Amino acid sequence: MEWRDEGVLLSMRTHGESAAIIEVFTAAHGRHSGVVRGGASRKVAPILQPGAQLAVEWRARLDDHIGTYTVEPLRSRAGVLGDRLALAGLNAVCALIHVALPEREPHAALWQATVGLLDALQSVPDWPADYLRWEMRLLEELGFGLDLTRCAVTGARDGLDFVSPRTGRAVSRAGAGDWADRLFPLPACLMGQGPADPRQMAEGLAITGHFLNRELAPVLGGRPLPEARARLIDLLARL
Amino acid sequence: MADAARDIEDLIELMSRLPGLGPRSARRAVLSLLKKRGPLMAPLAQAMAHVALTARDCATCGNIGTEDTCPICADPARATGEICVVEDVADLWAMERTAMFKGRYHVLGGTLSALDAVGPDELRIPQLVRRVAAEGVREVILALNATVDGQTTAHYIADALGGTGAKVTTLAQGVPIGGELDYLDDGTIGAALRARRSV
């Protein structure tokens, strides 16, 4: 078995004295682990940092073996190391992909979105809004995309102010009626409208967090979402 | 005779667990020790037995020593109001080799890691915060690795020390001595550019 692909490194841990086991989110092969011989060496270890974009070649005798990777760096994301918020964003992305996606299942659209977001961390000041949309894309990939196109009660396309915590569908003020206080407020930035101020970001992340928690409950086994996401939310709240 | 051979095999097996040694190199090392039983093996065994009994973590900084307080923490000349935070004892030794830092240390015992579920309480971060407040520390130097986990930990500690009034600094990042720009990755060159200074 052998293939070549491009991927974003999610994690690296040493294996024995000189090898490393890396987990890469690849374009065509999804989240995929493998051994890098000499991966813990002084020469290779600096390349194997979370968020780094790599050209990888995977080889194994059988498909269900862990296999070995040979890696070549394409893009380092070392630029985020000095920026605490961007670094928290990178950690949250890597941790969520690690927790949420099943192994060896391709998610090409999410891969594109992930690369775009990681690039934005270093260059786009308003990247937290991109991060929020990335979490929505992650929910879509998990099979639970939010439906914010029309009111679940009245069918109206305008005046959508809430999201149902049960169905993930938008609800208008008229449709919400007396139930409004049990629904999530729907921030405009979640629909791609207007800038994402800290309050809207918090509201948006509360919605995506609720559905991620619910959808990932069997995987998380009673544990909360990754600490890295909580740290990002904490830093965003302090802006 | 068979027992003696088994003892030596056991010794080889134990030696092979050391970093840098495999079964083959452990066999060579043990053979070398056996040939120098008097001048090397016996003193080595005595020294190892002694250190195994006396070695302990410094209650203040986490350094390894043979007393409850390590020689650096016990030295009043090193109470300069500066604490250098390192990930591991090996990093402390590396800093000491430079002979440039005259303050005291704090060994974290690792770095924060979201995927390995290593949080602040698994490290010695709460002890650091208490220590900075109690010892009236003026500057905390974060000498952590320039990796994602190392810098995540550095930012976390900087936040945690926010209310103490201590100045928090990190080691510079950029072109290593003897390094050539052509061989450096773009992130390192970018960091060096941001940290440029007048000459």
UniProtKB/TrEMBL annotation, chain A:
Kindly give the InterPro entries that the UniProt entry links to this protein: ARFGAP/RecO, DNA_rep/recomb_RecO_N, NA-bd_OB-fold, RecO, RecO_C
Which source organism? Aliigemmobacter aestuarii
Task: Offer one Pfam family short name for this entry.
Answer: RecO_N
By its UniProt entry, which HAMAP family does this protein fall under?
A: RecO
Describe its function.
Involved in DNA repair and RecF pathway recombination.
Which family does the record assign? Belongs to the RecO family.
Descriptive protein name: DNA repair protein RecO
Q: Which UniProt keywords apply?
A: DNA damage, DNA recombination, DNA repair
GO BP: any one term: DNA recombination
UniProt GO cellular component terms: bacterial nucleoid
Tell whether DNA damage is among the UniProt keywords: yes
The protein's superkingdom reads: Bacteria
Q: Which Gene3D superfamilies match?
A: Nucleic acid-binding proteins, Recombination protein O, C-terminal domain
Q: Is the DNA repair keyword given for this protein?
A: yes
Automatic annotation (TrEMBL), chain B:
Report the protein's function: May play a role in DNA repair. It seems to be involved in an RecBC-independent recombinational process of DNA repair. It may act with RecF and RecO.
Pfam families, sorted: RecR_C (PF21175), RecR_HhH (PF21176), RecR_ZnF (PF02132), Toprim_4 (PF13662)
**Per UniProt, which keywords does this protein have?**
DNA damage, DNA recombination, DNA repair, Metal-binding, Zinc, Zinc-finger
Instruction: Give this protein's Gene Ontology molecular function annotations.
Output: DNA binding; zinc ion binding
Q: Give yes or no: UniProt keyword DNA damage.
A: yes
Name of the molecule in the record: Recombination protein RecR
UniProt record similarity statement: Belongs to the RecR family.
In this protein, which residues make up the domain named Toprim? 81-176
List, in alphabetical order, the GO biological process terms annotated in this UniProt record. DNA recombination; DNA repair
Q: What ranges of residues constitute the C4-type zinc fingers?
A: 58-73
- According to the entry, what is the taxonomic lineage of the organism? Bacteria, Pseudomonadati, Pseudomonadota, Alphaproteobacteria, Rhodobacterales
The UniProt entry, under HAMAP family, shows: RecR (MF_00017)
Q: Sorted alphabetically, which InterPro entries does this protein's record hold?
A: DNA_Rcmb_RecR (IPR000093), Rcmb_RecR (IPR023627), Rcmb_RecR_Znf (IPR015967), TOPRIM_dom (IPR006171), TOPRIM_RecR (IPR034137)
- CDD domains attached here? TOPRIM_recR
